[in-house]
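Researcher: I need the complex structure. Ligand is heme C. Inputs:
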Amino acid sequence: MKRKLLLTALLLLPGAALQAAEIDEATGLIRNPGWELVRIHCGGCHSHATVTGQRADRQTWLGMIRWMQATQNLWQFDAATEARILDYLAENYPPQPNQRRAAIPPALLPQPDARRL
Ligand code: HEC
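Model: Output:
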C-alpha cells in the first residue's frame, strides 16, 4: 500500500511541475515573480498585449526600454526595479526559434511569366 502511494506521488510530481503558468486575466501577463512590476509600468501607454506578444533576450528587452525612455517618455527605473523587470521579461518572454515562418521556396514564388498574364 505504502509503495503504491509512493509510486502515485512520483507519477504525479512531474505533472505538477509542468503545470502551465497562471495567466492574469486582466492583462494576459504570466503570473511569475515580477509580473506586478510589469503590470504597473508597462500597460499605461499601450496594451499589455504589446508586451506579451514580444519575444526577446534580456539585452534586446533592455534596448526596447531604452528606446521608449529616449523617444516615448517612458520614465526611468531605479536599478533594482529595472533588473526585476528585465528578469521577468527575459524569463517569461524569451526569444523563440521559429518566430518567423520559413522562407518561401523559390519555386513557389511568382514566376516572371505570371506578371504578363
Ligand atoms: C510612456 C509610455 C510607455 C510606457 C510606460 C511603456 N511603453 Fe512600450 N511603447 C511605447 C510606445 C509609444 C511604443 C510604440 C508604439 C506602440 O507599439 O504602441 C511602445 C512599444 C513597445 C513595444 C513594441 C516594440 C517593438 O519593437 O515592436 C514593446 C515590446 C514595449 N513597448 C514594451 C514595453 C515594456 C516592457 C514596458 C514596461 C517596461 C513598456 N513598454 C512601457 C510607450 C510606452
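Model: Summary of the prediction. The pocket of heme C is lined by residues 41-42, 44-46, 50-51, 54, 64-65, 68, 72-74, 85, 89 (CB under 6 Å).
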